[in-house]
Specification:
about 60% helix; binds arginine
């Protein structure tokens, strides 16, 4: 353990267990790029403002660039006994360029430094998540186009309800993931403000230029209140919230994939490369990936709750509790990224068993609503028509028939309004393809939805 930067105030060295407990470098070392980038922008502002000399700034920036390069090539590795990434970089800089390195921290505190680093780091994570979501939507669009006329049962209460197309079902997920993109982008927008220059909590007496630093870092602007700048972690909560919703959507999708690939449904078959076998039951093919995605959803929710709970009782401004933010939000983004990465090819390689979807739709009186609609169009009030249709279903169950298998005479016993055209009206494909209302399940409607999403993605 090297001497602490704050050693002057203390008579004893830090206990080594306390040092381990206190240290965050294991978690925050991944922010090295943001930390160094922020320091470079800070040093160059200090020089422009005449707070340090141009020569000092030049040396500092060169030293920082070399550290970045050495970390990237592996020539330099992190000192895991360091307190955090900020202390590590500063100590390494001073080791390399001597006392000049000690000037970097002028008009700055680790409090505004860490707040900036997390923002910069999460901004790049947000971009990656958005790209992965786009890739997922692309696969969904492709499949929806392929299966826009594939009839399957639509469910409510997991009971067969009305026939839909598989393409329509898939497009529901495209909408969810499109909203997820907008949530991530929205969080990134608010995240993109620089807290640097707030210093420890109260600002500084040095003539700094905070806006210049924000501009150099490509950020939208600065956090206007120095206390808020160093104590705000809303942006981490917002990203963890967006991650939680992404996981919730992936989890619902996973649940359906698990059901659909069971023998009870057999609507799809997962590719061998994306499913696993059993160590004892030779017939098994398990949807482990989908189950793991569903399982990992809980930990991302946990990360969100960790952040909210960590913040709820904190007085302004910085408190060490806040060091816990990184482990939680990094776990949330890591989990979302790994899940999306594996989910996309799993979905892309799925085999769809159209016959089983159609066969399932043919059973279960899925066209009973259409019988009621038929009578309604002939002038029967909907409630009465609904009752007649229900009685017909009961009759079918008693007689082991489906609605399509009834004769016209049988129909007529329940209402004189039934004519030959009832058979056309309850034909499964007609029932599905005629639901051409905006957002409905017809082929044209699915095509419209695909077009809509494509335009949104541009
Ligand atoms: N490692 C700390 C964190 O992540 C950096 C800020 C430390 N500031 C302080 N005043 N001790 O929160």
């Amino acid at each position: 353990m090297s001497e602490k930067m704050w050693a002057g105030r203390f008579k004893k060295q830090l206990d080594s267990d306390v040092n381990d407990f206190n240290s965050s470098i294991r978690v925050d070392c991944r922010m090295y790029k943001s930390d160094i980038g922020g320091s470079i922008a800070h040093a160059s502002m200090l020089a422009t403002q005449g707070i340090i000399s141009k020569e000092d700034a030049k040396q500092i920036i060169k030293g920082l660039e070399e550290i970045l390069n050495d970390l990237e090539t592996g020539a330099l590795s992190f000192d895991m006994t360091a307190e955090d990434i900020h202390m590590f970089v500063e100590a390494e800089l001073t080791k390399r360029i001597g006392d000049t390195g000690k000037k970097l921290h002028t008009a700055r505190s680790r409090n505004d430094q860490v707040a900036l680093d997390i923002r910069l780091h999460l901004l790049s994570e947000a971009k990656e998540i958005t790209e992965l979501l786009k890739a997922l939507i692309e696969v969904i669009l492709e499949k929806a186009e392929t299966y826009k006329a594939t009839v399957m049962p639509g469910y409510t209460h997991l009971q067969r309800a009305q026939p839909i197309t598989f393409g329509h079902h898939l497009m529901a997920y495209a909408q969810m993931f499109l909203r997820d993109i907008s949530r991530v982008e929205d969080a990134a927008e608010r995240m993109n403000y620089s807290p640097l220059g707030a210093c420890a909590l109260a600002g500084t007496t040095y003539p700094t230029d905070r806006i210049a630093v924000a501009k150099a870092l490509g950020m939208n602007g600065i956090c206007e209140n120095s206390l808020d700048a160093v104590s705000d972690r809303d942006f981490a909560v917002e990203l963890a919230n967006a991650c939680s919703l992404i996981m919730m959507h992936l989890s619902r999708f996973s649940e359906e994939i698990i059901l659909w690939s069971s023998w009870e449904f057999k609507f799809i078959e997962l590719d061998d490369a994306y499913s696993t076998g059993s160590s004892i039951m030779p017939q098994k093919k398990n949807p482990d990936i989908a189950e793991l995605v569903r399982g990992k959803t809980g930990r991302v929710y946990g990360d969100l709750i960790t952040l909210l709970t960590m913040l709820k009782g904190l007085p302004l401004a910085y408190n060490k509790d806040m060091q816990e933010d990184k482990e939680a939000v990094f776990d949330a983004v890591d989990t979302v990224k790994t899940c999306l990465l594996i989910f996309v090819p799993m979905l892309n390689t799925v085999t769809v068993i159209k016959e089983n979807m159609l066969a399932a739709a043919a059973k279960g009186f899925i066209n009973a609503t259409d019988v009621a609609d038929y009578l309604t169009k002939k002038g029967t009030p909907f409630r009465t028509a609904y009752k007649i249709s229900g009685t017909l279903v009961a009759y079918c169950i008693d007689n082991g028939k489906t609605l399509e298998e009834l004769t016209l005479n049988e129909f007529k016993e329940f209402s004189p309004d039934f004519e030959k055209d009832i058979f056309e009206a309850i034909n499964l494909e007609n029932c599905t393809f005629k639901r051409n209302s905006r957002g409905g399940t017809s082929v044209e409607s699915v095509e419209r939805q695909i077009q809509f999403i494509k335009e949104q993605l541009k």
